[in-house]
Amino acid sequence: MADLSRVLVGFWAALTLCLPPLDTYAQSASGDVRSVDFDECQEKIRVIIENSGIIPATIVDTDDYTVVNFPVAGGNVMIACSRQAGTMTITQYTDDRSPLTRN
């Protein structure tokens, strides 16, 4: 799982160029919001899936909003695409801060 996590982290950082490595978010639940066209955001998710082999859990998938969750070592990375806002939000949660693992 750790190797797969590194692949996802490294690939995403290279794909977006200016985005800091996802490890930077490991200690917080704050997200990075970027202006990205909805179709481009969804394409970036598809490329991550193809290159990493990780199949994310789909949380929301509508014509205007997509949220997926990639499991990574120590937590998860959620990526949200919003057509209306024209944004891509990337948030990494550690296991103890993840909204998916709270009781």
Structural summary, described in words:
With 103 residues, this protein is of the alpha+beta class. The protein has one domain: 2-Layer Sandwich (Double Stranded RNA Binding Domain), CATH 3.30.160. 29% of the residues lie in helices and 33% in strands. It has 2 helices and 5 strands. It has a 5-stranded antiparallel β-sheet with strand order 1-5-4-3-2, with helices on one face. A hairpin with a 2-residue loop joins strand 3 and strand 4. Helix 1 runs antiparallel to helix 2. The protein is globular and about 30 Å long.
Mean pLDDT across all residues, rounded? 77
Give the DSSP E fraction (strand runs of 2 or more residues).
25-35%
Based on secondary structure, the structural category is alpha+beta
| Topology as a string of helices (H) and strands (E) | HEHEEEE
Number of helices: 2
Helix content: 25-40%
Uncertain residue ranges: 14-28
What is the CA-atom radius of gyration, in angstroms?
A: 13 Å
Number of strands: 5
Main beta-sheet annotation: 5 strands, antiparallel
CATH hierarchy class name: Alpha Beta
* CATH-defined fold name: Double Stranded RNA Binding Domain
- What CATH architecture do you see? 2-Layer Sandwich
End-to-end C-alpha gap: 24 Å
Oligomeric status of the shown chains? Answer: single chain
- Side by side, the strands of the main sheet go 1-5-4-3-2
The 3D shape can be described as globular
